[in-house]
Amino acid sequence: MAAPEAYSRSALSRASLWQPIKRTWAWLAPYGAKALPLRTYFALALIVFTLHLPGEFSIPATDRDESRYAEATKQMLLSGDFLDIRFGDQPRYVQPAAIYWLQALTTAPFGGPRAGIWAYRLPSILSALASVLLLAWFGTRIASPAAGVAAGLLLAMSLLFTAEAHIAKIDATLLLSILAAQASLYLSIESKGETRPRFVGWPLVFWLALGAGVLLKGPIILAVCGLTLLVYAWWNREPGAALRVRPLLGLPVLALLVLPWLVAITLKTHGEFLNVAIGQSIGGKLAGTSDRHAGPPGYHTILFILTFFPAIAVAGLGGLHAWMHRGERLVRFLIAWILPTWLMFEIVPTKLPHYVLPVFPALALLVALGLKDSAALLRPVWARWVHRGAGLLFLIGIAVLFALPFVAAQNLGTPIGVPTFVAAAGILAVALGGISLWVRPSGERLLPLLAGMFLVYFSMFELVIPSLDPLWASARIARRLDALSGCERIEVATAGFAEPSNLFHFGPETFLGTGATAAGYIAGHTSCGVAIVESSQRQSFDAAAAAKGLTFSSFGTVAGFNYVKGRRIHLEILLPAGSSLHT
C-alpha cells in the first residue's frame, strides 16, 4: 500500500500563477488525511455534472443502441410487462432487464413513456457520478487522498467515460457495478492476511455487486472479476485467495438476486431468452462479428489514444509505475484487473470502443500513482522515452479532436459557426493544459487540464453536436409530424430508413420496410397513415402505390446523414389522398 504523499510536493514552478492552483489542490486532497473530507465529494460531484450535463437535454435520441434501450423501456412502461422486454414487435433478449427497470425509475417522475430522452439517460449520468466518487474513495483508502482525487478526475475527464455518461444504455451502470465488485474484492482478499476475513461486509458487497452486474449484462462482470481473481491469486501464489470472498455465503446471495428473474424469464419465454442471450448474442460475439462490429487485434489499443484522452498524456507514467512496482500487491491487483480483460476483448472478434471501459478505473489509479512518483519513474533514459511516446500520442489526439468539428461541418454541409470555433478554442486550452501536465507531471496540473475539458465538453455536447441537423433526421421529421392533427395516432411507415430512433420518435407500431412494403402498409392505413420514403426507395414505392391505386401529396422533405451507415439520405414525407391528417 502506497504511503500518503502530497502531490503538491512534486516539482512545480514557484510562479505565483500556480499558487491558487496548488491551494485548490490541497483543499481537494488534503495532505496526510486518512479520508477525503465531505467537501471533496461535493466538489467532485459538481465537476462530474459540469463535465457531463452539457448535451444531456439538447442531443436527440441517437442510433442505434440508445434508441433501442429507450424505446424498449418506453414499451415496457406502456405494456406493464416488466419481464418480457420488447422493441417494436420483436423480443429484446440480448441482455437481462435491470437497465430497463432503472430507466423506468428515472422516467417515472417525468411522464414515464412520455418523458424526453434525457430522462432515460439519468441512470448513465448518475452511475458516472457514483463511479467517480467511489473511485476517489477507493484510491484514498488504498493509497492517498491525492491518488484518489487524481484517479477520480482522470476517469471523469476521459472521452469514452464521458460519452457513455451521455447515452441511455447499459455501459455506465455496468462500470459502476464492476468498480464496486473489484474494490470490494481487493478489500476482501487484502484483509490483514486472514484466510477468511471476520468482517463479512466487503465479501457481501462483492457478491451484491456481482448480482447487480449479472442483472445488467449477464456474465460480463463474472468474466472481468473472475479473470482478475484468477491472475492475482496465481501471481501471488495464493490459491486460497478466493476463500476470502466467502463463497459459501456469497453464492446463495448471488442466486437470491439472479435466480428469481432468471427462472421467471425462462418460464415465460420457454427458454428462448437463454437461447438468444447466451447462444446468439454472447456466442455470436465470441464466434464471429456480431452486427458486423468487427475489428482486428489491436483495435482497442489503437483507439486508446482517444478513449482515454486526455489522460493519454501521462498514461506512460501509469505503465512505468506498473512495471517498476510490479512486486507490490496493489499494483499486481491493478495489472490483474487490466491485462486479462483487455486481452480478452482484443481477442474476441466482435469489437466496439466501449468494451474496455471496465478497466478504466484501474488505469486511472495506475496513472494517479505514476503522477505521485513521476520524478523517480523518469530517472532512467528509457523511461523518459516512454513518457515522450505518451506525449506524442496526446498530440495526435489533440490533432484529431481539433479537426473533428470542422470535418463534421464540412461533410454534413452545415455552416462553420461560433460553436465550432469555441470547440477549437477548448481543444487548444486542453493542449496547453496537457503539455503542462506532461512537462511537469503532478496532481495540481490536472486542474488546468480539467478547465480545458470543461470548455471542450460544453462546446461539443451542448453547441456543436446538437447543431448538426443532418444527424437528427428522425427528430426533425417528428417535429413536422407534431404539426399534423385529425388523428389520435399517426401510423408511420418508413422506406429505406429503418433506424431505431424512428420507433422512439414515431411510436412502437412504426413500420420499417422497403418502398414496396411501405406502400402496402399505407394502403391499409390511408386515413391516418404517413409514408417517409428515402430517395433510393422512391421508385419502388411509387410503383407499388400505383398498383394499389394510391396517390400521395408531399408534406415536405428532409435531407440528412445516416451516421450509422455513413451515407447521405433524402427523405420525403408523403400523405395519401383522402387522409384525415391536416395542419
The proportion of strand residues reads 5-15%
Strand numbers in spatial order across the main sheet: 4-3-5-7-6
Unreliable segments of 5+ consecutive residues: 1-13
Rg = 26 Å
Please, could you describe this protein's structure?
The protein is an alpha/beta fold and 583 residues long. Among the domains are: 65-120, no CATH class; 170-291, no CATH class; 382-469, no CATH class; 473-576, D-Maltodextrin-Binding Protein, domain 2 (3-Layer(aba) Sandwich), CATH 3.40.190. The chain contains 25 helices and 7 strands. It has helices at residues 19-28, 38-52, 65-79, 98-107, 117-120, 122-142, 145-157, 159-165, 171-189, 201-217, 220-235, 247-269, 272-287, 299-307, 315-324, 329-347, 360-372, 374-377, 381-412, 418-439, 446-467, 473-481, 501-506, 515-523, 538-547; strands at 86-87, 90-91, 491-495, 511-513, 529-534, 552-562, 567-576. A 5-stranded mixed β-sheet has the order 4-3-5-7-6, with helices on both faces. Helix 23 links the parallel strand 3 (491-495) and strand 4 (511-513). Helix 19 runs antiparallel to helix 20. The longest helix has 32 residues, at 381-412. The termini are far apart.
List the helices and strands and how they pair.
Layout: H1 19-28, H2 38-52, H3 65-79, E1 86-87, E2 90-91, H4 98-107, H5 117-120, H6 122-142, H7 145-157, H8 159-165, H9 171-189, H10 201-217, H11 220-235, H12 247-269, H13 272-287, H14 299-307, H15 315-324, H16 329-347, H17 360-372, H18 374-377, H19 381-412, H20 418-439, H21 446-467, H22 473-481, E3 491-495, H23 501-506, E4 511-513, H24 515-523, E5 529-534, H25 538-547, E6 552-562, E7 567-576
Parallel strand pairs: 3-4, 3-5
Antiparallel strand pairs: 1-2, 5-7, 6-7
Helix pairs in contact: 2-6, 2-7, 3-4, 6-7, 6-8, 6-9, 7-17, 9-10, 9-11, 10-12, 11-16, 15-17, 15-19, 16-17, 19-20, 20-21, 24-25
